[in-house]
User: What shape does this take?
Amino acid sequence: MLTGKVLTAGLSKDVKVTAQLLLNKKLCRCLLVFPSAQKEFCEKPQFICEDMSRTDVCQGRLGNCWFLAAAASLTLYPRLLYRVVPPGQSFQDGYAGVFHFRLWQFGRWVDVVVDDKLPVQEGKLMFVHSEQRNEFWAPLLEKAYAKLHGSYETMRGGHMNEAFVDFTGGVGEVLYLRQNTPGLFPALRHALAKESLVGATALSDRGEIRTEEGLVKGHAYSVTGTHKVSLGFTKVRLLRLRNPWGRVEWTGAWSDSCPRWDAIPTEWRDALMVKKEDGEFWMELQDFLSHFNTVQICSLSPEVLGPSPAGGGWHIHTFQGRWVRGFNSGGSQPGAETFWTNPQFRLTLLEPDEEEDDDDEEGPWGGWGAAGARGPARGGRMPKCTVLLSLIQRNRRRLRAKGLTYLTVGFHVFQIPEELLGAWDSPRSRALLPTLLRADRSVFCARRDVSRRCRLPPGHYLVVPSAARAGEEADFTLRIFSERGHTAVEIDDVISADLEALTVPYEPLELELVQLFLELAGGEEELDAYQLHTLLSIALEPGRANTRTQGEIGLRTCEQLLQCFGRGGHLSLHHFQELWGHLLLWQGTFDKFDEDASGTMNSYELRLALNAAGFHLNNQLTQALTSRYRDSRLRVDLERFVSCAAQLTCIFRHCSQHLAGGEGVVCLTHRQWSEVASFS
Assistant: This one.
């Protein structure tokens, strides 16, 4: 039988007060107060009574109306609902005390298993509940979502699109309303016909506030239907909305008790109007525009929709990434010094949209999803491609327990001219980035999901996702959708090194340096790590080395240099000559990127400095090296750079010994890999 964690029943007065205080401060934490105080609170529970409907989702004490409005919208489409709430579960047949739910998370569907213990106070569910007291699919779904994100508390506050996307794997978009937003009604009609999930919010700076007309500002509503009503020669456009509270309804025109319903045919009135306090109501479009600020639409993803009706396949690319401080978190300002370091994706749109008949009432989106695709414009206008870009911050909601919130993130879209396309194959294109023209308006906001529908001519584009401020760190997922063909790749380098270029031409050592070597080496004529450290400390003193930047090379780095250039842990004069040539080369490279002669370079520059030294590394490896060799102030000094270059030289030299044809994949035994790893 269903059990609940009872917070105050059967407790002393003092303990009840303590529990109530905890309830008021941290709603989810109170579940941990009395873990042993459990009892059955429903004798004949049902997972589903008859069917799942929007009246099964009534809000409790948790401020998660955004989640519940999305769940109510989901019930309109059984095919989608059964994907989230797998059928065949019950408290009777095959009952094992657990229930399964499936939620989409950043490119994959996750199976979430929860037990049947629910938070209860005074014999009633504290959070979401159904109109039917013994029905529990909705509270258990809420618990599964809370488990996925860490706790019930993390569900306080949010946007419907976040839950929409997690229920469907679709793409959420936000439309900011104006009093004369063109094409809104047909856009909503098309969206609902395509099984898109739709919600609306009346924004408020002061939390949830009830209005005289029965609406709640700062509250999320489901948009569940549209209908045109003819009154004589006038057509009235109506929207059906639902308050997830299951009560508190609109009292204005076309509300449940409005006399205007008497003017329409009885069969229409009976089909459209339900006169009961269930939180659902109709309102006219103009009234809707007067009271609501945003509409949120989640267009279903290709994997949910299935094959395109026209027979062509859906085109989608998904990229997983991370902004890392000091490496690729370059901020959102294209003119900033670090902007070029942001992740970059090259998008090529191959085919324009198919032509369709014009629709005077077409919505503000156009293209795939809510309003249907628009084809090439007639009358000589340039053909366009519809592409939908979606950026998601991964796993950020569960970090609320640590006091973190969603970052302000977004993306820029630039057009790449044909003449520059060949240069856009690696991060060396840094100098070209400021010359590109923006192809579409940039979008940045502090939400988990940031999406934009673009209408662009066929061609090549650069998509640059970023956090608003340089140095902010977060995981992200970038998705690119189109009905017509496109290609998308992350701009990256192939891991390689020109071993011939890494070979320094032979030049005789200065006599003074030879004498210093022989003096330290003694009769064995070889240096160990300690002796090499002494030699370099003297040789690199200000005024000795013919370079601008001076810096000490530590003992640990000297040991690495011995591993790379020495033999058996010692360094002969011949091998020291090779080491010294590389050292001067690396120091000269370092000087180029130490523009202010401070003795350090910005860690964002490490990739370019390594490129200049002959190493071409992919994003993943460069990120790992940057994290290892930067200091807490995002700086790389000479010793760190030399250590990094020496390590790479060792690895590439060692791997080259196992290549048969000079290029390809290196296959190493466990012992050989251990030897490579020892260089680090």
